Backbone:
């Protein structure tokens, strides 16, 4: 780490200096709670959290795939899953990612009421997904503890369903804040962006889950 | 360089003052760091008392001091407390929270509130875990690994509480990891480049990446395990068509990286301590950084070396043997970098330095037995014997715990504004070093000769060496007395430290001791060359301390 030319006795840009910068507290993390003036790392933090959350799913997926490879399904055909409902559900979630995106772009262009409508549309799609999931649960020929496949099926879809439920609640909060004005507006849309990032994540996880659970 | 003195600063109302602040939901990274440190030490003494029970029981070949069930509970609690409530929170949470904002030139962590939440998850989790000893059936008995089917057949309540507690601690660790990554990558003072950061930042970045990638897998696995216990699903229950080996894979996917979560921060801390007390720049900064990154990548793909006897197929054994052996390369690079840092330095043989040197010696020994264990033919012989116990204690105790002590001696002046007593410190080191080696060296021999681990009774031919080991443990227990006396007495009567008693260049020393609420009264200093020591003692001028002129200092 010796970067200075030999022979420079007292180099400019000394290693330890206390040069004052132009702004009072600069961009250093000044009491990181006030959001004025310092780097906003919240979306970055959320993305890191979603990586962690994604690893939980990755662990479940790895367990499921290993179970599939090593502990084969029971011979009878009751474990063939019905495909129509989950496929409709997949479509609902994918569409909801687009509706959420529309909500965001409307907010940024200042169209608050359109933004709120798109948010409600997204909530409706999410709730429809959850309802579809419930219908599927009640029509399945197996229960949680019937066998390894059944347990894994419920664990994976249930854990994902929890995420969707949480997402729906978050969108409702964002919608409420947008309605009140104030916390969500054209110039302050962290809440909306955070919920959107999370929602896309939950959608992405579902697509993988659909692939390995229903199609494979 | 203007350095604040404590008197001209009154941080009114920003946080509770005095002792009270250490019990409050403080958002100050320094308070949170010390909260982690003190809490960690409390659990260290609890875990140490449990170790005392283990070594007392093992002083004789029959199960006489405690019952077999109690022995299993004590063993499980000891491992869990030491890993999840002592090592991980202290090397990550305590020193990380205290030092990282200084090192990146920030006034706090990126998410102070999340930081406080992460800390406050720890006391309830710890109390829950200890309390499980008193519930019906007692605490968990299946070891810190909680392997099924054992963990499915031992008393259920204790096991479920164990899972809950580990989930809380895992959550705390993940929140901490997210905070460290965001702080190091996003909150750096303008003008400070990544390759100018003190090494501990790199260590914490690597560690936090491992935390974020691997801890969630453990959480998911333990949730499935709790389903097996509570709802009688069969994920890991062979009787219900489940698969125990899948549990082992998932568990070790976390728990091998976990050993690096416990030791990488220690690598970082020694890398801060050695240059200061050897008055030389850290040798091989760049190779050190790349070694850390290599360890992070390799650390994620070696887990099955814990499973060579779990019916692992030959190709898998081969792959994991090779990958594990490779990890010795970056680790060796770091080892030689530390030696080269010491080489020809003006060593101050104070307590911080002695504990750091103890770390180097113990760690290389544990590393060599680790490489030996990675070789399948050898591992099949000694797996689940005391050889493994000896190996990981050389790493975790001889390595990380020694570094924690070195760090306390090194940073105590910054924490409190007072110096620790050196005579007591050296006595502490001597007793710890002798006690530690007396306790764990014989266990290599015991393991090689087939003494299984985790059993309260053993073949009488192993008695003498077990007694030697127990005497070593007693010495280790005694060694904490001078330490405890020292930290408590010095807090009131220690010599006043001043801002920078070690003449150090890293930014935490360029402010008052203890530092003001927002770390510096003025602008954060821009330290681009944190290790440029080398001019004769006393001639360091912190305003110009920089670059090659310091490195060649008096000689040119
Ligand atoms: C970096 C710090 C290290 C720590 C904290 C550590 C810790 C541990 C722990 C806790 C265990 C036993 C786990 C159990 O069965 O309950 C273990 C086993 C093992 N370690 Fe390490 N270790 C470290 C470094 C290494 C290195 C550098 C290597 C090889 C290059 C290595 C190779 C092994 C192997 C192969 C085993 C399995 C032994 C067996 O169960 O038969 N370890 N280590
Ligand atoms: Cu390992």
Residues:
């Amino acid at each position: 780490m010796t970067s200075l030319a030999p022979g420079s006795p007292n180099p400019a840009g000394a290693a330890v200096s206390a040069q004052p910068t132009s702004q009072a507290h600069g961009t250093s993390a000044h009491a990181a709670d006030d959001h004025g003036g310092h780097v906003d790392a919240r979306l970055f933090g959320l993305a890191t959290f979603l990586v962690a959350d994604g690893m939980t799913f990755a662990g479940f997926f790895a367990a499921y795939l290993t179970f599939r490879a090593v502990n084969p399904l029971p011979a009878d055909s009751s474990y063939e899953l019905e495909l129509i409902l989950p496929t409709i559900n997949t479509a609902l979630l994918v569409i909801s990612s687009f509706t959420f995106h529309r909500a965001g772009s409307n907010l940024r262009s200042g169209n608050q009421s359109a933004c709120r409508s798109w948010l409600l549309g997204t909530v409706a799609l999410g709730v429809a997904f959850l309802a579809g999931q419930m219908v599927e649960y009640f029509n399945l020929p197996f229960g949680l503890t019937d066998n390894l496949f059944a347990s894994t099926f419920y664990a994976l879809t249930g854990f994902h369903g929890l995420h969707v439920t949480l997402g729906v609640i978050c969108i409702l909060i964002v919608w409420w804040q947008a309605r009140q004005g104030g916390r969500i507006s054209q110039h302050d849309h962290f809440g909306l962006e955070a919920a959107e990032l999370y929602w896309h994540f939950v959608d992405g996880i579902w697509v993988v889950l659909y692939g390995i659970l229903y199609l494979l | 360089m203007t350095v604040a003195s404590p008197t001209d600063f009154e941080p009114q109302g920003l946080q509770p003052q005095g002792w009270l602040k250490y019990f409050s939901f403080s958002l100050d990274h320094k308070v949170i760091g010390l909260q982690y440190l003190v809490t960690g030490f409390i659990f260290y003494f609890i875990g140490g008392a449990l170790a005392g029970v283990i070594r007392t029981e093992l002083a004789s070949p029959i199960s006489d001091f405690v019952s077999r069930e109690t022995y299993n509970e004590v063993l499980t609690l000891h491992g869990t407390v030491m890993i999840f409530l002592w090592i991980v929170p202290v090397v990550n949470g305590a020193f990380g929270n205290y030092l990282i904002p200084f090192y990146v030139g920030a006034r706090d962590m990126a998410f102070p509130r999340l930081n406080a939440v992460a800390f406050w998850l720890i006391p309830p989790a710890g109390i829950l875990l200890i309390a499980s000893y008193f519930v019906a059936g007692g605490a968990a008995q299946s070891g810190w690994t909680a392997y099924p089917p054992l963990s499915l057949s031992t008393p259920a309540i204790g096991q479920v509480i164990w899972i809950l507690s580990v989930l809380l601690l895992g959550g705390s660790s993940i929140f901490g990891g997210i905070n460290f990554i965001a702080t190091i990558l996003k909150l750096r003072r303008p003008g400070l480049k990544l390759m100018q950061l003190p090494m501990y930042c790199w260590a914490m970045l690597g560690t936090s990446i491992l935390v974020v990638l691997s801890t969630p897998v453990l959480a998911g696995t333990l949730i499935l395990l709790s389903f097996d216990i509570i709802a009688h699903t069969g994920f890991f229950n062979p009787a219900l068509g489940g698969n125990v080996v899948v549990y082992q894979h998932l568990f070790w996917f976390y728990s091998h990286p976990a050993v690096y979560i416990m030791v990488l921060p220690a690598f970082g801390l020694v890398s801060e301590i050695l240059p200061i007390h050897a008055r030389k720049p850290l040798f091989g900064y760049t190779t050190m950084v790349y070694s850390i990154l290599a360890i992070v990548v390799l650390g994620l793909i070696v887990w099955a070396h814990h499973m060579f006897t779990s019916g692992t197929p030959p190709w898998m054994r081969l792959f994991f043997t090779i990958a594990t052996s490779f990890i010795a390369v970056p680790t060796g690079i770091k080892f030689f970098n530390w030696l080269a840092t010491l080489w020809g330095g003006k060593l101050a043989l104070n307590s911080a330095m002695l504990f750091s040197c103890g770390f180097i010696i113990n760690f290389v020994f544990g590393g060599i037995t680790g490489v030996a264990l990675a070789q399948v033919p050898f591992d099949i012989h000694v797996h689940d014997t005391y050889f493994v116990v000896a190996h990981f204690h050389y790493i975790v105790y001889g390595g990380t715990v020694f570094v924690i002590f070195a760090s306390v001696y090194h940073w105590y002046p910054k924490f409190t504004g007072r110096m620790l007593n050196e005579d007591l410190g050296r006595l502490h080191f001597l007793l710890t070093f002798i006690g530690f080696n007396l306790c764990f060296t014989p266990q290599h021999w015991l393991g090689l000769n087939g003494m299984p681990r985790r059993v309260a009774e053993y073949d009488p031919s192993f008695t003498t060496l077990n007694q030697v080991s127990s005497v070593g443990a007693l010495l280790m227990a005694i060694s904490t007395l001078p330490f405890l006396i020292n930290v408590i007495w010095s807090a009131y009567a220690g010599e006043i430290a001043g801002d920078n008693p070690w003449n150090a260049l890293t930014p935490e020393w360029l402010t008052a001791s203890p530092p003001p609420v927002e770390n510096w009264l003025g602008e954060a200093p821009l330290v681009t060359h944190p290790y440029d020591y080398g001019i004769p003692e006393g001639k360091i001028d912190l305003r110009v301390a920089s670059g090659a002129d310091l490195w060649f200092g008096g000689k040119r």
Chain B touches chain A through 79 residues (CB under 8 Å). Chain B has one domain: 33-551.
